[in-house]
Amino acid sequence: xxxxxxxxxxxxxxxxxxxxxxxxxxxxxxxxxxxxxxxxxxxxxxxxxxxxxxxxxxxxxxxxxxxxxxxxxxxxxxxxxxxxxxxxxxxx
Length: 92
Fold this sequence. Notes:
single chain; mainly beta; 0% helix
């Protein structure tokens, strides 16, 4: 589950533009199971526009890495299970 408002700009060089700053809010995710994920969740908002009011309910994620959470507010978790497995090379 990836919500990254830097749009995968790892250097975080996107210029600030108040007229086009995106927002992510009021999202409800329920009854989801995810298997074999590289990372459980990435929730990365912007300093001027945090991701907010997200509800996760009845979510189970099996992943190799946990959660990245930056610039977020009011993330509600109910019955969320993260099961982290040791990293192993994938078969090709």
